[in-house]
Amino acid sequence: MNSIDLSKVVAGFTDVARNSQAVFRQALHALSHPGLIVPLTVDSAIPAHANPGSAVLLLALLDADSRLWLSSSLSQSDAANWIVFHSNCSVVQNPAEADFAWVADISELPLLKDFNPGTDEYPDQSTTIMLDVSALNTQADTRTALTLHGPGIESQQDLNLSSIPTAHLASLVAQWQINHAQFPKGVDIFLADSSHLVGLPRTTHIQMPQSEQDHKA
Amino acid sequence: MLQSSDNLIKSTSSSKRSEWMALLARSPLEMLEQALKRYVTDTPQWLRRPETGLMMIEGRMGGTGARFNVGEVTVTRCALRLARAAADAPVGIAYVLGRSHQHAYLAATADALLLSPEHNDLEQTLLAPIREHLAQIKKNRQQQADSSKVEFFTVARETGQDNDSESSE
């Protein structure tokens, strides 16, 4: 059993049962409406080096059986001790072994294929990735927004991720198309800022902004 | 099922700490209440509110054999920082048999107090009486058992003689 340095650990949910259920409901809503920006109830103390949105999401979802992979800036921070203390999850070094991954910035995101895609028999055992973004922009500017299609979206959903550098975004979308193609296997992604959540299940088809496509053509 | 991943704290005096944590967990509730009365007037900063759950107790056959699961016990645990303590102040932790939230709260408070050097007096005012009390209980039980003790002198002597005669042959 590993010992935890508790010196920087802060409290968890104010009301564990109600708060975690509220967050779980919001996560469910986000995954069933891909690309929709869902407000998150953040009623918890948050470690200094953590993004509140993804922190409460992990706090609600993780338990002692979960294996968590942390990106480089999180793995040595107070956030790691905090989530291990409150959820009792184990931390793994290899993204392929992780049930959940917490990525503090898109620049620290490994390739999507490095995570566990699940198996054809058990596609539910794939990694779920929590990716922190600085802001989820509710103003849908169709020129710079990603275009989303798929189950849970009636015709088309726009998602503006202007806080992510275009090069990183293009790489993510390219990898996502491979991830989407290997259905039923594949990873799911939650994007979270300090108080909002966006779910990207593996069933969602993502296209780059119209302006970028024009630029390439 | 509760898992005690946080009760092995990196600390220079961890053996001393585990000793007092054990004393606090075994102490009668009244002794804790008496000694800690003036420290528990304010609500502490909870890291983990008192919660009751099950823990698996493991044993070894004869104290040396392979591990086996003895059974589950009810345990109440909590973790806290003292009221008005700094954000990086020591964290008091308690794991106590039974369902008493108050006992876990008081034991964790005492643990947090004992971790800060300015409360050295608790060693005398709290730990020493508990140690004495537990020793007394042990002594009483020992005496009770001793009162029904039977010494089989005859058997012991005969066995001894047999052994002697065998070894001399």
List SSEs of chain B in N-to-C order: HHEEEHHH
> What's the arrangement of strands in the largest beta sheet of chain B?
1-2-3
> Radius of gyration of chain A over alpha carbons?
17 Å
Strand order of the largest sheet of chain A: 1-9-8-5-4-2-3
Mean pLDDT of chain B: 85
Give the biggest beta sheet of chain B.
3 strands, antiparallel
Describe the structure.
- The complex is a heterodimer of chains A (217) and B (169).
- Chain A has 217 residues and is of the alpha/beta class.
- Chain A has a single domain, classed as Bacterial phosphonate metabolism protein PhnH (Rossmann fold).
- Chain A has six helices and ten strands.
- In chain A, strands 1-9-8-5-4-2-3 form a seven-stranded mixed beta sheet. In chain A, strands 7-6-10 form a three-stranded antiparallel beta sheet.
- The longest helix of chain A has 17 residues.
- The model of chain A has no long low-confidence stretch (mean pLDDT 91).
- Chain B is of the alpha+beta class and 169 residues long.
- A three-stranded antiparallel beta sheet of chain B has the order 1-2-3.
- At the A-B interface, helix 4 of A face strand 1 of B.
Give the helices and strands, then pairings:
The complex is a heterodimer of chains A (217) and B (169).
Chain A: H1 16-32, E1 38-39, H2 52-61, E2 67-70, H3 72-75, H4 78-87, E3 90-92, E4 100-103, E5 128-132, E6 146-149, E7 157-159, H5 166-181, E8 188-192, E9 196-200, E10 205-207, H6 210-216
Parallel strand pairs in A: 2-3, 2-4, 4-5, 5-8
Antiparallel strand pairs in A: 1-9, 6-7, 6-10, 8-9
Helix pairs in contact in A: 1-2
Chain B: H1 14-26, H2 29-36, E1 45-60, E2 67-81, E3 92-97, H3 101-115, H4 122-147, H5 153-168
Antiparallel strand pairs in B: 1-2, 2-3
Helix pairs in contact in B: 1-3, 1-4, 2-3, 2-4
